[in-house]
Design a protein that fits this description.
Elements lengths: L7 H7 L1 E4 L12 E3 L2 E5 L4 E12 L2 E12 L6 E14 L2 E11 L4 E12 L2 E11 L4 E5 L3 E2 L9
Antiparallel strand pairs: 1-10, 2-4, 3-4, 4-5, 5-6, 6-7, 7-8, 8-9, 9-10, 9-11
Length: 156
């Protein structure tokens, strides 16, 4: 998180790099998808999950009303996930919301787009985009990044 001495104007203009999740994510863990409905397209190797979709991988949870899963060409695994219509991503104690998100399972990069809100404990950061590196356990906010820095309360 940004420290109390951080340059707020710099954070707004250049974006903010923050830790995300309680620990780095293991991309080799299985991806579990739960939803109300499933529609599979064998022609393009995709599946669309709708209604209360929850995707779990290790400690990470992604939820949205609509998720499209793109399978690898050989159908041996998942290449990427597209989520839209309001996305929530939770990892450890950290939570983020956005309009949509794309998760490249192979690289471990999640791109959240549109009115992103990141909450970490008592702190919150907003921005247009957030790029989460699940392997490194970090996130970068860009596009009109805004946060309120709370002064540390003095110990009595």
């Amino acid at each position: 998180m940004l420290g109390a001495g951080a340059n707020f104007a710099s954070a707004q203009a250049q974006g903010a790099q923050v830790a995300f999740g309680s620990s780095p994510q293991d991309g080799d863990l299985p991806v579990e998808v739960t939803a109300d409905q499933l529609s599979v397209d064998q022609n393009d190797g995709t599946a669309i999950f709708t209604g209360g979709v929850v995707i779990a991988q290790g400690e990470m949870r992604l939820s949205a009303p609509w998720v499209k899963v793109h399978y690898l060409d050989d159908q041996s695994g998942i290449e990427k996930l597209e989520a839209k219509q309001g996305v929530t991503l939770v990892s450890g104690e950290d939570a983020a919301e956005s309009s949509r998100a794309d998760y490249n399972v192979e690289t471990g990069i999640i791109t959240m787009v549109g009115d992103v809100l990141l909450v970490q404990g008592q702190s919150a950061i907003t921005g247009d985009n957030m790029f989460v590196d699940t392997v490194a356990g970090t996130a970068r906010m860009t596009g009109r990044v805004k946060t309120v820095l709370q002064p540390q309360a003095e110990q009595q």
